[in-house]
Specification:
7-stranded mixed sheet, 490 residues, Rossmann fold, 15% strand, 6-stranded parallel sheet, alpha/beta, binds cobalamin, binds iron/sulfur cluster, 15 strands, pyruvate-formate lyase- activating enzyme
Length: 490
């Protein structure tokens, strides 16, 4: 048997000078989730390999005689994934299987482009599928979605896997070892899954549920060790930082403490960054442990600066809590990166400037600013589905919405701004935070990793703004929101 795993990318890899400083132009960190699945599959089928368009071209010749081709889709790369799946279904003899966050939330849409969709986490379902295909048994286990005679058939939800102690074999990904020398690609480890909260815009809880499952601390530390060796051996990387990519690492506090203590006991001496909610900023014991374990930064999902928006989208926090949390984290010698959402219904002109002022005044060390996006299955999709900017995607040859703009660009008609004005607010915030005078200041006064990261992000954000600006004439030419024309209140 021959298995191939594919991660599509909107702008597939090609060599470019910008790959040195812009992570999502023609190069990105490849999918750890799909690599995990390839690692599991390899235990059953020797001829298993993964390709990621984030770091290499896909050699189509190698795919022709595959038995099963698995493609992994987030929302932002769904259209490219559909185009690839359509092509592979036509030109190979392989069974084409789609999975990942987006097919899980939109199984009916995804199933039009493949033989089968496997919804949810694939750790156990791919094994069921591989064994059934190998033994020529019917595919009748939970988690499947497919069309028969034009009708969508689904076989129900399956329980998420409890045992997630798998260390991804990074060597299974074609070209990864060579590309790992790029400073824009970061080693990453995913130590737990799930989040107990229920923010209305969150696709993750909609897809993976609110139960938190964790890997054993020993397994996590071994993964970290292997990731460091993989990335650093044979490469000279400027930013030696490993990213713990969990959505809410601190949700299970006793476990989080065990992992941090295991990292400290391992003597690894590396630098880490991690995503966090504001609550961790009130946990002095945790902050001390983070510092001791080598963490330099917490990437905080701050999202909004107004209590009105926190309440509207069921994000359980307040502006005062965020502020107190940021201050306490910084008191412990850790940086805070801010992850923000623009386009809340309360946002008006000037929201970009307000955001920039907050970032600068509180010395937030870097930002990701995204316009809110709306994925079927999330509460915000239901409340905003009459106000979305969607167009048929020609590249996939389907009527699926063009999901490729869900990369932080404006994809809806906000209540109190036009789409173009909202995009201008995002540009304004980025310009103020990553201005030339602030770059000069960073180069003069910051040292080490702080300076390296600011410099890298300065150029990345400049590219992000260019992409956003290119769209302004088109956004300005959009007709009025169809929902407001119908007289439906926003
Ligand atoms: C690491 C990360 C990145 C990395 C690497 C991304 C990658 N290639 O995986 C980088 C930095 C490149 C990145 C960039 C972005 N990201 Co990101 N990222 C993440 C993060 C934090 C972790 C990903 C991860 O490892 N997950 C853990 C693994 C276990 O889950 P998984 O990959 O989904 O895989 C499991 C299942 O989905 C399933 N599965 C997956 N594939 C397949 C395939 C088959 C066939 C089957 C059966 C099953 C299956 O099984 C896997 C194992 O259980 C996620 C949050 C999250 N929890 O997923 C956000 C996330 C994926 N990112 C997101 C976004 C929006 C972005 C950006 C647009 C941000 C921006 N504005 O720049 C960019 C897009 C870049 C681009 N243009 O391509 C969103 C995507 C939302 C969506 N609906 O798709 C997420 C979910 C964050 C969020 N909270 O909303 N990101
Ligand atoms: S806290 Fe983060 S991961 Fe949890 S539901 Fe909210 S947005 Fe999603």
């Amino acid at each position: 048997m021959k298995l191939r795993f594919i991660e599509p990318a909107n702008q597939p890899y090609h060599p470019d000078i910008r790959n040195l400083f812009v992570y999502d132009q023609y190069i990105r960190t490849p999918s750890n989730g799909l690599l995990t699945l390839a690692t599991i599959a390899k235990q059953y089928v020797e001829d298993t390999r993964m390709y990621s368009e984030s770091i290499s071209r896909i050699p189509l010749k190698d795919l022709l005689d595959s038995d099963i081709i698995f493609l992994s889709l987030f929302t932002f790369n769904a259209n490219r994934g559909y185009a690839l799946a359509n092509f592979l279904r036509k030109h190979t003899r392989a069974l084409i299987v789609l999975g990942g966050l987006h097919p899980t939330l939109c199984p009916g849409e995804a199933a039009r482009h493949c033989h089968y969709v496997l919804t949810g986490e694939g750790d156990e379902s791919i094994v069921d599928l591989i064994l059934a295909v190998r033994d020529r048994r019917p595919l009748d286990f939970p988690g499947l979605a497919f069309y028969r005679d034009g009708k969508l058939i689904t076989t129900g939800k399956r329980r998420p896997p409890e045992n997630i102690d798998v260390i991804p074999d990074r060597n299974l990904l074609w070209n990864f070892k060579k590309m790992a020398g790029h400073n824009t690609i970061w080693p990453q480890v995913h130590a737990s899954r799930g989040c107990p909260h229920h923010c209305d815009y969150c696709a993750l809880v909609a897809a993976f549920g609110r139960g938190v499952r964790t890997r054993s601390p020993e397994n996590v530390v071994e993964d970290i060790r292997q990731a460091i060796v993989f990335f650093d051996q044979g490469h000279h990387r400027l930013a030696k930082v490993l990213w713990i990519t969990d959505d809410n690492f601190f949700a299970n506090r006793p476990w989080a403490i065990q992992v941090l203590k295991a990292i400290i006991a391992s003597g690894l001496h590396y630098q880490f960054t991690i995503q966090a909610r504001f609550e961790v900023g009130f946990d002095d014991e945790m902050l001390d442990l983070l510092k001791e374990a080598g963490f330099i930064e917490l990437a905080m999902g701050i999202e909004f600066l107004e209590d009105e928006s926190f309440q509207a989208y069921h994000k359980e926090s307040t502006y005062r809590q965020i502020l107190r949390s940021v201050r306490n984290i910084k008191r412990h010698g850790l940086r805070v990166r801010g992850l923000f959402i623009m386009g809340a219904d309360s946002h008006t002109k000037g929201v970009g400037k307000r955001l920039a002022r907050f970032v600068i005044q509180n010395d937030i060390s870097g930002v990701l600013i995204q316009s809110m996006y709306f994925i079927p299955g999330t509460p915000v999709y239901e409340t905003h589905k009459g106000r979305l900017i969607c167009s048929g995607s020609k590249s996939a040859g389907t009527s699926a919405p063009d999901w490729s703009r869900c990369v932080g660009k404006v994809v809806h008609y906000p209540a109190l701004l036009s789409p173009a004005d909202l995009q201008k607010e995002i540009i304004a915030a980025s310009s103020a935070i990553y201005s030339p005078p602030r770059l000069m200041k960073a180069l003069i006064f910051k040292r080490g990793i702080d300076r390296t990261l600011f410099l890298g992000e300065f150029f990345w954000q400049r590219w992000v703004r260019q992409e956003l600006k290119k769209e302004l004439p088109w956004l300005s030419s959009l007709p009025d929101c169809p929902e407001s024309q119908k007289g439906v209140s926003a």
